[in-house]
Amino acid sequence: MSAFSIPVPEHQPQWNLPARGPVAMYCLIAAEAAIFTIFVVAYIFYVGKSATGPQPATVLHAPIFLTVCLLSSSLTIHIAVRSLRKGNVRRFAWWWCGTVVLGGIFLAGTAREWRHLIYQDGLTIQTNLFGTTYYSLVGLHAFHVVMGLGALTLVLAFAIHGDVRPEHSERTEVLSMYWHFVDAVWVVVFTVVYIIGR
Amino acid sequence: MSTASITIGHASSERPPLVETLHQWVTTVDHKRLGVLYILYALIFLVFGGIEATIMRIQLIRPHNDFVSPEVFNRMFTMHGTTMIFFAAMPIVFGFANYLVPLMVGARDMAFPRLNAFSFWLSAFGGFLLYFSFLGGDGLYGAGNAPDVGWFAYAPLTSQTFSLGHSTDFWILAVFVSGLGSMGTAINIVATVLCMRCPGMTLGKMPLLAWLNLVMGGLVILSMSPLTAAQLMLLIDRYLGGHFFDAQAGGSAVLWMHFFWIFGHPEVYVLAIPAFAFASEIIPVFSRKAIFGYPVMVAATLAIGFISMSVWAHHMFTVGMTAAGNTFFVLSTMAIAVPTGIKIFNWLATMWGGKIQFRTPMLFCVAFLFQFLIAGLTGIMLSAAPFDWQLSGSYFVVAHFHYVIVGGILFTVFGAFYYWFPKMSGRMYNEALGKLHFWLFAIGFHLTFDFMHIPGLLGMPRRIYTYEPGRGWDIWNLIVTIGVFFQAAGTLVFLGNLLWSKWRGVAAGSDPWDAWTLEWSTASPPPAYNFAVLPEVRSRRPLWDLKHPEDPDWHYE
C-alpha cells in the first residue's frame, strides 16, 4: 500500500455536460429507429405483392381502442415522472401503475387480434408475403412493448416496495423516453399497416 | 490549494496467482483492460483470417491447382471476409477507441463500464459462434462445415433450399450477436465523448481522435441496425418459413442487397474514420507541428459520415437500377472523394515544413497516405457506373477494396500499435524489428495488391477456385501469392516484436514521443483510475501548454 498527496483545487470550475443516461437513450432510440425503418420499408415494398390471400383489406381492422390506450400511456408516464420529480412518490406509483395497465391492455389486444387472424382468417407468418411482413413488423413492435412493460413492471415493484425516491426521477425519465419511443413507433406502424397498407 | 491523501491499493510486489489474474481479466469493467481484450481478440482473428487468405492464395498460385476443393475454397472466402470485417477490423477499432477515448478526453472510464464489458463479451461470443461452425455447421452429426455463402450472403443462396444444415445460421447468429455488441460499444463511445470530457474540453478542444470516434460511433448506431434487421428477416425466412427474400412467393433478392449494403458501405467508413483518427494523432507528433486545419478536419469527417449513408447502391450497378438511381449513386460516390481529399491535403500540410521523424508509426502513416490515395482513385474509377459494369465482380474490385482496408486502414492500425504500445505496456517496442515489419509488409502489400488489379482488368472474376491456363492471368496470380508470404512474414515479425517488447523492452516512461494529448500525462501503463486529479484543459494540446508555459496554444486558438 502506498499513499501520496495530491493538490485539490479550492474552486471547482463551472463545467456542465449533458447527462449520460438521456444521451445513451437517444442513441439507442436512433439505433432502434433504424431497425424499424428497415422493417417498415420491407412492409411498404411488399404491399400488394402477395401471390395468394388473405389480403390486408379483407382481414385487417384498425385497432382504434388499443391505439388510444397505448398513446394515452405516454401521457400517464409523463405525469408519473413529473410527480416523482416534485417528490410525490405515491402519485408517481399510481400513474406508473396506470401506464403498465394501459400497456398490458394493448398487448392483450394484439394477442386477441393475432389469435383471430390465425384461427379465423388462416393468416400465419408462412401464408404469404403479407403474413410475413405483418407479423414481423407488428411483432417487432410488440416485442418492444414487452421489453418496456418488463422494465416498467420492475420499477413498479420497486415503487411498491418503497425503494423509488425522488432522486431516481432522472432514471425513470430515461425509461419514459424509451416508452415514448415505443408509442411513436406505433403511430408509424399503425399508419403503414392499417391505413396505407390496406 | 489544499491537499488530499490518497491510498493506492495493491502496490505489493508479489504477483497474484494466475487464477486470480485471469478472473480479474474476465470480470473486468476497466476500459483499458477491455480495450486490450478487444485488441488481443482481434489479433487472434486477424491471424485466422490471414491463414484463410493464405489458403486461397496458395490455391490460386497456378492454374488447375488442387490444394483445396471448391467447397473448401467457398468456405475460405466467406470466413475470410466475415472474420476480417466483423471479428478483426471492428474489434481492433473498438479496442483502441475503448483504450484511448477516455484517456484522451480526461475521464476515468467509459460512460457505462458494465455495458462496455457486456458488449465485449457479446462480440467475443459472436466470434466463437462463427468458428464453432467448423464443428457444428451440419448440426453435430457427421463432419461440420463453415458458412460458404460469401460475406454478403446474397439471397436466394441463403434460403433453406440452397443452404442446408446450419452453417448459414451460424453466420447469421455470429454477425447478429456481434452486431448487438457493436451497438452497445458505439452508444458507449458516443456517451463518453459527449458526457465525460474533463473541465475545459469543449467540443472544439477535443483531440481529433475523440471527434472521429464520435462520428464512428454515430455511424455504427445508424448502419449496424439495418444489418441486424436484415439478419432478423433472414432468420424468419429460414426458421419460421417467411418469404422476405423468397422470389417464388413474390419476395425480392434485390431487397436483401439493398439492406446489406445500407450497412456495408457505411461500414467501410466505420473502419476508415478511426484509421483517419490514428493518422491525425500520429502525423502531427512526428512532424512536430500541430494538425493543419483542425475545424476543416472535423467538418470533413462529419461530411464523410453523412455522405457515406447515401452511396450504398454503387455496389449494385450491375443489378439493373433505373438511370436516375444509377446517376444518384454515381454522383454521391464521387462526392465523398471531396472531404476525403481535403483530409489528405491537411495531413500533407501538417507534414509540410515539419521536422519529420521517421519512426515506425510515422512510416506506416506515410505509406497510408500514398496507398489510401491510390485506393481512392480506383474507387472513383469504380464509381462511374459504365466502368463498374465492366469490372464489377472482378479481381479489380478485390484489389480496390483491399487497397482501402489493408493499404489504408491496416497500415494506420499497425502505426497505432507502435505509437500507443509504450502507453499500453509501459515498454518501448524494438525499433529495428518495427522497421523490418514495415518494409516486409509494404513490399508484400504492393506485390499482392498492385498486381491484383491486372488480372481483374484482364477479366478474372472473384471467387473462382481455379482458372484455365493461357488467359494471361498466370504470372500475375503467382506474383500476388508471393506477396502474401512477405505480408505473413511481416505479421510474424510484428507479433514477435509485441511479445518480445512486452517482456524485454526498455521502460518507456509516461511520454516517450514528447506528445501533446492527455493520455501521455499519466503513467505508462495508466493506473486503474487514469488520473489522480481530473485534468483541466485550455487548448487542443494540453501537454504542450504544460511544457511551454511561456507560449501556450490557447494564445492562438
Using brief descriptors, characterize the structure shown.
heterodimer, A: 198 residues, mainly alpha, Four Helix Bundle (Hemerythrin (Met), subunit A), 6 helices, 72% helix, elongated, B: 557 residues, Cytochrome C Oxidase, Chain A, 16 helices
Task: Quickly count the domains of chain B.
Answer: 1
- The CATH class assignment of chain B is Mainly Alpha
Count of domain modules of chain A: 1
Quick one: CATH class of chain A? Mainly Alpha
Distance between the termini of chain B: 28 Å
CATH superfamily of chain B: Cytochrome c oxidase-like, subunit I domain
CATH topology of chain B: Cytochrome C Oxidase, Chain A
- The CATH architecture of chain A can be given as Up-down Bundle
Find the CATH topology of chain A.
Answer: Four Helix Bundle (Hemerythrin (Met), subunit A)
Number of helices of chain B: 16
| β-sheet strand percentage of chain B | under 5%
- CATH-derived architecture of chain B: Up-down Bundle
Rg result of chain B: 24 Å
Brief write-up:
The complex is a heterodimer of chains A (198) and B (557). Helix content of chain A is 72%, strand content 4%.
